[in-house]
Specification:
The chain is mainly beta and about 425 residues long. About 5% of the residues lie in helices and about 30% in strands. The protein contains 3 helices and 37 strands. It has a 6-stranded mixed β-sheet with strand order 1-2-3-5-7-9, with no helix packed on it. Strands 11-12-13-15-17-19 form a 6-stranded mixed β-sheet, with no helix packed on it.
């Protein structure tokens, strides 16, 4: 870090500002910390060991820059909103590149890295950590990109400002995407994924982390096949926020038992969806979940849904809510003036097993397709593997009980006793 005594000094020979880097009052290096906004060509002198954060902030006329192999670090936002040259070369000496170092560099079309660099690598002009597990920066002029197989994380602001990007292929190895990773990617419409499971499993830091958040529409593909009819796979327990945001070609969605929540804006902007049935394993529906689903005419919501946001169905076409009497969905319909139909089939049946029951035998509840809750005490210590084969059931049982463990092992939705 820059020492407290590290005052900046201007060097007229280079038309740049520098600062000594201190460690325990000993000078350990020199950082380039500022450049005039009208600078066009920069050759960084070889006594510089660091390019400081925001050093070239707003240098909109910059057309050429040479980084010597004395430089070991490039600070966060070092070239923020600068007109960085078409290509920039990272020497082998660089061991650290701060977050968003090239954010807002609208002319950048390639980042190259010296082959001997032990920390970073460039693949098709895109900057990655050396092991290929983390994508750091995509040049702003890219129009399409296929991420390398094995990459697990996309860093904050990695694609921010890629205003010409229209298509991206994301392998199923990706598990996390950082803050504002796809901010201002307004033309990004085509997203190619390996599977629905991997798509729903990605962790996002915020809305602008999501590749389909900032564009006017989103077309999801598995390979080259666009997804219009989606079946959420068995084993998925939550449909996360923004999962299918603005997927305008999505015409139907099938949600299996086992899904317990639908996140904020999960289907917002799915303007071709006409009807949807919520399974009775779902207990919550988030804000704007079906906002702007302008073709939606019917939605069936069972009384298992006890939490539903007031704006979940805002601007959702001429939708009619099918719901059980006394349910949260009915309360929403009345409060928001949405047409509704009472359907007794959406009222969840609850069975309470005898308090002294200790075992549930083979096929005891097999084939019961009408959804039901089953209250099971912690005295039950044996359940046959096929006891609930084909049944639509939600266990209500004590946390940590045998029944709860059985439910986990057999992918049966369960919740704790009230």
């Amino acid at each position: 870090a820059l020492g407290a005594a590290g005052y900046s000094f201007w060097e007229s020979n280079y038309n740049l500002a520098f600062r000594y880097i201190y460690n325990s009052n000993e000078i350990t290096g020199i950082a380039l910390v500022d450049a005039p906004s009208d600078v066009t060509t920069v050759t960084i002198p070889d006594f510089v060991t660091s390019i400081g954060g925001f050093a070239f902030d707003g240098c909109s006329s910059l057309t050429s820059i040479s980084i010597p192999d004395s430089v070991t670090s490039i600070g966060s936002y070092a070239f923020f909103d600068g007109s960085i040259p078409i290509s920039i070369s990272i020497p082998d000496s660089v061991t650290s590149i701060g977050g968003s170092a090239f954010y807002g560099c609208s002319n950048l079309n390639s980042i190259t890295v010296d082959a001997n660099n032990q920390n970073y690598i460039s693949l098709d002009g895109v900057l990655y950590k050396k092991d290929g597990l983390v994508l750091i920066c995509c040049p702003a002029t890219k129009t399409s990109i296929q991420l390398i197989n094995g990459v697990t994380a996309i860093e904050s602001n990695a694609f921010s400002g890629c205003s010409n990007l229209t298509s991206i292929s994301i392998p199923d190895s990706v598990t996390s995407i950082g803050d504002y990773a796809f901010f201002c990617c307004s033309k990004l419409t085509d997203i190619h994924i390996d599977s629905i499971e991997s798509w729903l499993a990605i962790s996002y830091n915020n809305s602008y982390s999501h590749p389909n958040y900032d564009g006017s529409a989103c077309h999801l593909y598995i390979g080259e096949q666009e997804l219009t009819n989606v079946t959420i796979p068995e084993g998925v327990t939550s449909i996360p926020a923004i999962a299918f945001y603005k997927c305008t070609s999505l015409t139907s969605i099938s949600i299996p038992d086992g899904v317990t929540s639908i996140g904020d804006s999960a289907f917002s902007g799915c303007s071709s969806l006409t009807s949807i049935t919520i399974p009775d394993s779902v207990t919550s529906i988030g804000g704007y979940a079906f906002y702007d689903c302008t073709s939606l005419t019917s939605i069936s919501i069972p009384d298992s849904v006890t939490s539903i946001a007031d704006n979940a169905l805002t601007n959702a076409g001429n939708v009619t809510i099918y719901c059980a009497d006394g349910s949260a969905a009915l309360s929403l319909a009345i409060a928001q003036g949405i047409p509704y139909v009472i359907d007794d089939a959406l009222k969840t049946i609850t069975f309470i097993l005898p308090a002294d029951l200790t075992a549930i035998e083979s096929e005891a509840f097999a084939g019961l397709t009408q959804g039901f809750n089953l209250v099971i005490t912690d005295r039950v210590t044996a359940i046959a593997d096929d006891a609930f084969s084909g049944a639509r059931v939600v266990f209500i049982c004590p946390e940590g009980s045998y029944a709860a463990q059985y439910a986990e092992a057999h992918s049966i939705p369960h919740k704790a006793e009230q």
